[in-house]
Amino acid sequence: MSLISPWRADFPGILALEAEGQTYLDSAATAQKPQPMLDALLGYYGSGAANVHRAQHLPGERATRAFEATREKAAHWLNAGDATQIVFTRSATEAFNLLAYGLEGEFQAGDELVISTLEHHANLLPWQQLALRRQLKLVVLPLDSSGLIDLDQAAQLIGPRTKLLAVSQLSNVLGCWQPVSQLLALGKAQGALTVVDGTQGVVHDRHDLQALGCDFYICSSHKLYGPDGVGLLYGRAPALQRLRHWQFGGEMLLHTDFYNATFRDAPLGFEAGTPPIASVIALGASLDYLAALDSSAVKAHEARLHNKLLAGLSLRQGVRLLGEPRVALASFVVEGVHNADLAQLLTEQGIAVRAGHHCAMPLLQSLGLSGAIRVSLGLYNDSSDLERFFAALDQALELLQ
Ligand SMILES: Cc1ncc(COP(=O)(O)O)c(C=O)c1O
Predict the structure, then answer these.
(1) Which of 118, 150, 178, 323 could form a disulfide with 144 if both were Cys (CB 3.0 to 4.6 A apart)?
(2) What is the distance in A from the centroid of ligand 1 to the CA of 360?
(3) Which tens digit of pLDDT belongs to each residue from 287-296?
């Protein structure tokens, strides 16, 4: 059965790549952008750029209004409550670094920071480096055989010394929803601060952050069909108040003389310097675009495509999936075939998939692998993309196996 995306024509990038002979199956790395987002970028620059939060003139006031409107839209998209709980960063990675520096004063030597085996480097390295700076212990939750964070073991490992729990909602390698609510309950029972990496999760379902109840939630515009250069940090107001300021300059202050300064609260106190104005405004256009779609139709289309991807992979000899992917993507290795060789032959046939460690090197190590191929889907993909992928895979495997 052929599956046609009714939204494909809204994404000029996917059409341009197709015209060039490229099949784009790497949306977990970054997504293509809808036309309204491109229009918003051009609209902002074409109608007169201006800095935000500081000018009284008309262009400055207009830019500030559009910029702050995105904060409202993001808060609405995430059901995050008051929009002042949304901080714009330059990426999801920067948001994790903001937390690791901003919370540093909360921890004493011997305190435990808990993450899991499947974390992206963005949700590993800032905590690892913080642990090294402050003599903290990094505790790593293991996975069960299907690729889920093991709740029994988590209940043993999350204890009175746990001061922070930071886990991913949807793995960028294994493609399965993690038991985040149960993990948050374990962390909160110990009074730990809780952080959810929603970078992949935010793309494939709507989430209610007030119901989820985490202290912090992080995601990235460029994976959510928005421009790059923008990350989103949601923090519950009391959790944001615990953050120490970490980058200094521009309008993030209340008052300064040469020797001392006082700083604004979140969000502006954590947005030092000129922010990515055009990108934030254009993210607002992407959120408007997404909000106007029938979200159940999008989910159903993605689920059908994902099933087709899994069914096709299961038919190929020697293909082994990593974990039990349930949504959005599948990572695999082929027995006796090096993933870099396979990736090379796919690339030569115009198939854009990702090969390597997917910024989760310790996860790959724990699986005894140095790399894997990942196929990831966006709402604009069609079954024709998968057909081209499988034809190229068969051709490559004929040469390599
Ligand atoms: C699960 C996850 N977390 C964090 C990140 C980091 O996002 P960014 O590169 O936008 O900072 C990524 C990006 O691949 C990701 O997949």
Answers:
(1) 150
(2) 10
(3) 999 999 999 9
